[in-house]
Structures are given as C-alpha cells and as structure tokens.
C-alpha cells in the first residue's frame, strides 16, 4: 500500500477456521455466491464520531435492532469486485480505486457517509490476504468481494440515519452463468423499468436489484438468463441488464454502448473495455440504441454481436433476445470474434498474463 490507511484495522483471526478438507472440497466447484470464506472486516460509523472500531474478524451473523433503518427504508449500498491470482501466485485487485470512488458516489446518492478510499481498499486487502487459501481451484475462478454499507440506527422517522456499518466479505466463485452455454438468452421487460431520471439507477444500491426481481423472475420462468431494461420515459432505448452493461458490435467493426445517462450503472468493466477496444483502433460510440433497431439490425445481419459485461459476468455473449412480440437471435447465437477477443484481452490483464499499460492491477503481496 502506498498510503497509510486513516484507521487501523484490528486483527482478530477466526478462532476455529474451516478445516482444510472441507475448504478444499468447497472451492473445487463453488458456483457463484454461495461459498463463503472465514473472515470479514467490519467498520462502524456514528455521526459526530466518524468511522471507528475497524476489525478483521470471524465471518458471523449480524445482530441488528429490528428498527434498524436499513430494514425499513433500504439505506444500503454495495460493490462487486474480484481478487485474482496472478501467474506468479500473488493476489491482485483490478481497478479497486474505481470501486472505492463508485462506492462513495452511491453513498452520496443514498445520503450515507463516505468511506475514505484508502480505508475501503485496505479493508479489502486484509480480508483477501486472510482468506487467500479459499482461492478456487476451478478454471477461471476468483474470490468475489462484496463490500457493503447499511444504516444501523434504530429509528423509524424518515431521514438519513446517524449510524452505519461497513462490511466486506468474500465468496469463492466460478462463472456467474451456468457452464457450457455458448451464450445467454435475455428477456426484454415490457411492464417494468429499472430506473428513472432522477432516481437511483446510477448508484449501486440494493433497492435497484429488488426492483429487478419480478421482471427477472418472469424471464427466468420462460427460460431466459437475464432481463434487459428499457428507459423509463420513452420505453424504447435499451439501458442495461439487471446486473450487467451491454455492448453491440456491427459489421463495419464499430461498437455502441449506451451512454451514462444517470439511469445505468457506470460499470468498471464497461469503462475498461471501451479503453481496450479504442486501443485496438475500434470505433466505440456511447450512443442510445433502441429495441426496434436492435431487432432490425440483428435480423438484417448488420449487428454481428452483442455482449454483456460486469465483474461477475466478465464478458458474456448474448445469443437470443425475447419479449412480448419480440424474438431474435444474434449472429450465430454463440460467442462472436470481437467478444472473445476483448474478453481474452481483459482477462489476461486481470491475471497478469498481459502488460498492464494503464496501471489497473493492484498487487496485494
Ligand atoms: N450494471 C449493473 C446493474 C450491475 O450490477 C453491474 C455489476 O456490478 C454492472 C452494470 C457492471 O459493473 P462492473 O463492471 O463495475 O462490475
Ligand atoms: C457484479 O458484477 O459484481 C454485480 O454486482 C452484479 C451481480 C449480478 C452479481
């Protein structure tokens, strides 16, 4: 670490960590988001006192007052990041400064206190190093990091809370989507939107995901993997998936991704791929793209590829799109050339197999 964190994190390692044999079995094929490691870092906040009582401790259930604001008015924000293992065995994070910044942008939107960026990163660094033995052995595995903040003050009046808790914990993960599928199928939500102008669409708050669950459930019941949302005003511009940004690749080699209009999450993968694609000389435009145009271009063959991107999903091809009165395939229905190429470039940087020209990789040891 280049800087000294603003608050010392007291270390209270787990008194009885998971036995080796159980851990090794758990990380062989962990799936996504269900295999949790032994430790977490917690930091408390009180108005007037600031952040205090930072500790690395055994991962355990929380004791919350039933009146804690988060349980009633949903003052909650989170981040999603991964720790990667480099070629030489070192652990590394990818652009953690961007997650720290976005966490604070979300905090401002949800009227929550900001956490100093160096403390955010140090908490993650210590938790990853404490549980590095949980790194999954499955191909493409990583430690998925989930930092979050909740309002803990017991108070039922509606105003920003005066007490908060920051926690970061880890899960050993493989791929987000089921293995073996060549591409994902997505469902266009007709009746529901995710975010409106002036709302919380650009913040990473739990409420956005709660609002996505009915349309996601509709799509899943019909056999699709994710839901795609249209804008809330005209119901025509494609915004993003419930948990990923989208890119469209055309037959002239150019690419479009929806602009950061305030209603979509400013993805760090999205930003990194724009940079990498432009370095390749590709014309990447941040431009609105309508659902009708998407269907017309996929049908005419002008659109060659579509892919979703995010920390959990990395870069995932979209092969089929369905909705009420909508149904079309994209390209061959499998991974396209540019999608594969960009995914490989990104993963190679994240895992230390390609030069890190932008200083995106932070080695932890
Ligand atoms: N959009 C939404 C709604 C997300 O939940 C995510 C995942 O974090 C993304 C986009 C992609 O963001 P990132 O690339 O920073 O993980
Ligand atoms: C991530 O990609 O980190 C997310 O938070 C998205 C979620 C669907 C897991």
Keywords:
single chain; 365 residues; alpha+beta; 9-stranded mixed beta sheet; 8 helices; globular; binds pyridoxal-5'-phosphate; binds 2-OXO-4-methylpentanoic acid
Q: Mind explaining what this structure looks like?
A:
With 365 residues, this protein is an alpha+beta fold. The protein has 8 helices and 18 strands. The strands form 2 sheets. Strands 1, 2, 3, 4, 5, 6, 7, 8 and 18 form a 9-stranded mixed sheet that branches. Pyridoxal-5'-phosphate binds at residues 80, 240, 243-245, 265, 267-270, 310-311. Pyridoxal-5'-phosphate binds next to helix 6.
Let me know the average pLDDT.
96
Tell me the β content. 25-35%
Mass-distribution shape: globular
The number of helical elements comes to 8
Number of strands: 18
The sequence of SSEs as H and E is EHEEHEEEHHEEEHEEEEHEHEEEHE
Q: What percent of residues adopt helix (DSSP H or I)?
A: 10-25%
Distance between the termini: 9 Å
Q: Give the cofactors and ligands.
A: pyridoxal-5'-phosphate, 2-OXO-4-methylpentanoic acid
Structural class: alpha+beta
Rg measurement, Å? 21 Å
* Contiguous runs where pLDDT drops below 50 for at least 5 residues: none
